[in-house]
Design goal:
- With about 425 residues, this protein is mostly helical.
- It has helices spanning about 5-20, 30-80, 95-170, 175-240, 250-260, 265-270, 355-360; strands spanning about 305, 385, 405-410, 420-425, 425-430.
- Strand 4 and strand 5 (about 425-430) form a beta hairpin.
- Helix 3 runs antiparallel to helix 4 (about 175-240).
- The radius of gyration is 43 Å and the shape is flat.
Length: about 425
């Protein structure tokens, strides 16, 4: 904005404020207001026509490009990705040569289709997107006229208000007479300017709307026929695909099930797809040199004593305590006597040092009190287990406990090497 334009905007600001909040005497032309509303709708819909046709153009190009990239991705999956390269004698060639060949043929077909549709897509650019751009250019020129008319209306209302104030003044001085004469001249000039742009727009905007309808009619018709050509070409090309890898005589679902076979069942039998993570990375293996396991006794029982025994063979698989070991660690046996009055409490290798020191200093826990008899003798009591050592949670999902705590057992592991799920002090988690 130039300095002159900034000055005019500052002068018109008070009248613009009054017009926005409908204060004072403001000029209103019902015919122009309706034409202006239709012009704003025309601008909005033309912009939408341009954007949507551009999106359609990009979508067709993108669809073909994505088909090519999809074929390349499948081709890479079909290529050999395993085998011990360090031992050439045991290298096992794996892959799907038929599938790779089908991907190459499919990619060539899509590229041919892309070249065939290129002229049709260029016609969309020339006959739809291009004319929409031209219509937007015309609308921008008309917008300048509407803005000019708005400025002239502000000047017209502003000068009329000034003239009315001077005319209503009862006693006029010589200065007031000069101001009145000047105001009458400005009102006359402002009236001419405003009427020129107001009448111009009221006369020519309806003609623009009529020409716009004539302009859109062939545009829409061309877009419709170009869409038919695109869809027809796509249908004919895809219908004539003759790739032996695809069995087009079967139903889609039947062909899919036949190709897949029992792969899903074989994948579900892999142990790695059933692994359940319960937290972050563990600090290391639970059993190392010089460490004591969480199971004890000749019968390799768990480190917690259950008050009730139950068959855990039907329980779901839980997290393993051992880390890929083929044989269990040596059984832990407590020493009959320890020097310096140390406690004979056993703990797992995952127990923190501070907790272990506290357990040794604490000594053997006193026997837990006998549970109170249930009010209803027939109601089953939850199975509980007594903790033999202190344990601090190493990851999210673990359950911390101290020596002597009574843990309510919720679920037992399938084997004695797996962790159990229990509840203590309202908190549920897994424990060794």
């Amino acid at each position: 904005m130039s300095l002159k334009g900034f000055g005019k905007a500052a002068v018109r600001a008070p009248q613009s404020f009054k017009q926005r909040f409908n204060i004072g005497d403001n000029t209103k032309d019902a015919v122009y207001i309706d034409a202006e509303r239709r012009f704003q709708e025309l601008e909005k819909e033309t912009k939408k026509l341009h954007d949507e046709s551009k999106k359609y153009f990009d979508a067709i190009n993108g669809m073909l490009s994505h088909q090519i990239e999809f074929s390349k991705a499948i081709q890479e999956i079909y290529k050999p990705i395993s085998g011990r390269v360090s031992d050439p004698d045991s290298l096992i060639p794996e892959g799907n040569p038929e599938g790779i060949q089908a991907c190459e043929e499919y990619e060539n077909i899509v590229r041919e289709l892309q070249a065939t549709l290129q002229p049709e897509l260029e016609m969309i650019q020339q006959r739809v997107i291009g004319p929409a751009d031209e219509l937007l250019t015309v609308i921008k020129v008309v917008q300048k006229s509407t803005l000019k008319r708005q400025h002239k209306q502000l000047d017209y209302d502003r000068h009329r208000t000034t003239l009315k104030k001077l005319q209503d003044k009862k006693e006029k001085s010589l200065k007031d007479e000069k101001a009145l004469y000047k105001a009458e001249t400005e009102v006359e000039q402002a009236t001419q300017d405003f009427n020129y742009f107001n009448d111009l727009l009221k006369d020519e905007l309806p003609r623009l709307f009529q020409l716009e309808r004539e302009f859109i009619r062939p545009l829409f018709q061309s877009f419709y026929y170009m869409q038919l050509n695109v869809f027809y070409t796509l249908h004919e090309k895809m219908q004539s695909i003759d790739i032996g890898y695809f069995d087009l005589t079967r139903d889609i679902e039947d062909a899919f099930d036949m190709k897949r076979g029992d792969i899903k069942d074989q994948v579900e039998q892999l142990s790695i797809v059933k692994f359940k993570a319960t937290g972050g990375k563990k600090p290391g293996p639970r059993y190392g040199a010089g460490s004591r396991p969480a199971i004890e006794g000749p019968s390799s029982r768990l480190a917690i004593e259950g008050r009730k025994s139950s068959d855990a063979s039907s329980a779901p698989s839980r997290r393993q305590t051992l880390d890929n070991t083929t044989s269990p660690p040596p059984p832990y046996t407590t020493s009959p006597s320890l020097a310096n009055g140390e406690s004979s409490i056993g703990r797992a290798n995952s127990t923190g040092g501070a907790w272990g020191a506290a357990a040794k200093a604490k000594g053997a826990a006193p026997p837990p009190p006998k549970p109170k008899p249930s009010r209803f003798s027939g109601a089953p009591q939850p199975e509980r287990a007594e903790a033999l050592y202190d344990y601090e949670a190493q990851a999210a999902g673990d359950l911390s406990f101290t020596t002597g705590d009574m843990i309510e057992i919720i679920e037992k592991g399938a084997t004695e090497n797996e962790w159990w799920t229990g509840k203590l002090n309202g908190k549920e988690g897994q424990f060794p």
